[in-house]
Amino acid sequence: MRTQPSRSLLAHACGVLLPLVFGLSACADPGAEEDGESGDETEESGGEWDGRCLDVGSPLVDRAKEITPLSEATAELMGVVCSTGWASDAPMLEASWSLDLGLISSPYGSSSTQMALHPDGGVVVFGVGVLARVDAQGQALWSRPELTANGWIAMGVVEADGTLLVPSYEEQGLNQRVLRLDAEGNEIDEFVVPLNDPSAEISAMVRWGSDVVMGLYDLSASDQWFEATFLRVSSDGEELLRKSNEQLFQANLLAVTDAGNAFFSGSLLAAENGAVLGTIVPSAGGVRAIVGGGPGDDAFYVAGSSGDLTVSSFSSFGVERWLQRYDRAGGSDVGLGIASTGDGGAVVVGSERLLGSLSEGGWWFFGQPTVIAVGSEGEALWRDRIAALGEAHAAVVDESGAVYVAGVAESTEIDDEDYPERLYWLRRYDP
Length: 431
Hints:
The chain is mostly beta strands. It has helices spanning 6-22, 72-78; strands at residues 67-68, 97-103, 113-117, 123-127, 130-134, 140-143, 157-158, 164-171, 174-181, 187-191, 201-208, 211-219, 226-233, 239-245, 254-256, 261-264, 267-270, 276-279, 289-292, 300-305, 309-314, 320-326, 334-340, 346-353, 357-358, 367-374, 380-385, 390-397, 403-414, 420-429. It has a single domain, classed as TolB, C-terminal domain (Neuraminidase), CATH 2.120.10. The chain contains two helices and 30 strands. Strands 2-30-29-28 form a four-stranded antiparallel sheet, with no helix packed on it. It has a four-stranded antiparallel sheet with strand order 3-4-5-6, with no helix packed on it. It is globular, with a radius of gyration of 21 Å.
């Protein structure tokens, strides 16, 4: 029998059920202790209750479970304190379109999503059980969910000519290989990655020029253990650089700036030769997601959580330029994905505390997807709170400034074990 994730249950009870019973106004983020953060409130996130945080936000897609807003009387009874801190008064931006990408069919319960821009417009969405190209108008052009259905996580890169490199599993969590697909999603061949052990697992992939940079767990040179490995290969799979360290544990945290500075598992490296340049340590929130700036932008942008959602900017050598915290109404807000805008700003996405009620109880998630656009000085430009039970995981920004956001949500569909299904979604904003 499937069991509900304990963290989700605890957080949902903390964010929704406990306030109703005990009149609590806030709980710590259930992921905060894992990140070494207390989740305590800060001066930046305090404020007087004025009801602004009760708005459930914008509708998502038809199959997403609806949220009903709390009445002011109920909110006051619960002791809700709406933040008047950073981004709380940023204008809401309506999405240009939203798309249901299908139900999640993962044997492991994974639902993380990633995205990449396509050179002909639109995006490619990668998830466990979803692999789809969507054009700029929101039309799905092709879908190959079977290629990513058996993995723990999903990722990929899109080359300048529109071809894709996508890790795929032949069995459930076993025999990972990287496939090369054409612009229509058809398999061309296998992209052979130089690994020390065939059971090595790729956890992250990004493009740097014509090269591909990967974060993976591979066997050490001494053949004694698996360790986090930074690997740069050419477009034909030739190994150009390998750096590994047995003391690193987060091979999925990977980003490279256009200028060639790389962040990997907490350290800053030169992507060209592997020289260690420093580290990135946010003054609050840790690193949940990170992205390097594009052409002309040597910064790194970081999403995290300290109980509040955190977003920050760092120089190419790890100097924090600014850090902002967003709090809806006390705790349980988290940044899960981030994109650079190309002009020194960023778009951070994640989840914020659920204040509304559900027609049926939630199962998989304890918050609502949230999107916040940030300017080059850390100012909040616009935001969107999505009226669904779920998370936003990934964002990308195209050359026109259009913002694509992908994530997951609990659906109204019920599986054969009487549990709610989850669905993947995608939406576009045109600021």
